[in-house]
Inverse folding.
């Protein structure tokens, strides 16, 4: 797993921003521009097969391992995104990120004010289990908790995250989907 793909897994867990499937009740959130702040805490071992690391030249391996330690240490720092949530996204239950074929999603709770989704993914190489809970505090404020466990090559990593969203207004200001606004300094230019 490359450093960038690992970051995407962590960011994807944190920025799950209310993903589910078409069977969910639309959440009572205002359409328009939202600011989403996520924070995650990663613990455990990096789910990377030793053979993948051993295939890297020693200097590249050391650099990769140091970068991953920095990512894990800095994971609790806030990431801020702006996202344009259209009426269509709201009507689809925010189903813009389909899971891969090895994943199964179960809707635990679905109402205009709450969404809980469990996701289990299993392949020959790894398993991922996640629990994603979101609550609409009012039409302009959303909170969420994310829990994900990734197992690969006998190693387990746990990701716990929180999300707060606030509505900025009905105009998406040229943002069509989602845009990273702020990431911890250790993640910039990597």
């Amino acid at each position: 797993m490359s450093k960038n793909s690992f970051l995407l897994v962590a960011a994807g867990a944190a920025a799950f921003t209310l993903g589910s499937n078409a069977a969910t009740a639309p959440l009572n959130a205002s359409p328009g521009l939202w600011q989403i702040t996520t924070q995650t805490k990663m613990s455990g071992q990096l789910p990377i097969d030793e053979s993948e690391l051993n295939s890297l030249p020693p200097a590249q391996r050391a650099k990769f391992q140091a970068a991953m330690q920095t990512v894990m240490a800095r994971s609790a720092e806030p990431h801020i995104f702006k996202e344009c949530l259209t009426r269509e996204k709201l009507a689809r239950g925010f189903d813009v990120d389909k899971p891969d074929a090895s994943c199964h999603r179960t809707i635990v709770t679905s109402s205009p004010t709450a969404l809980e989704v469990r996701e289990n993914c299993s392949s020959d190489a790894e398993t991922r289990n996640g629990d994603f809970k979101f609550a609409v505090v009012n039409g302009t404020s959303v909170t969420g908790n994310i829990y994900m466990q990734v197992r690969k090559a006998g190693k387990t990593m746990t990701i716990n995250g929180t999300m707060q969203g606030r509505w900025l207004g009905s105009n998406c200001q040229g943002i069509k989907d989602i845009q990273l606004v702020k990431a911890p300094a250790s993640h910039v230019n990597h």
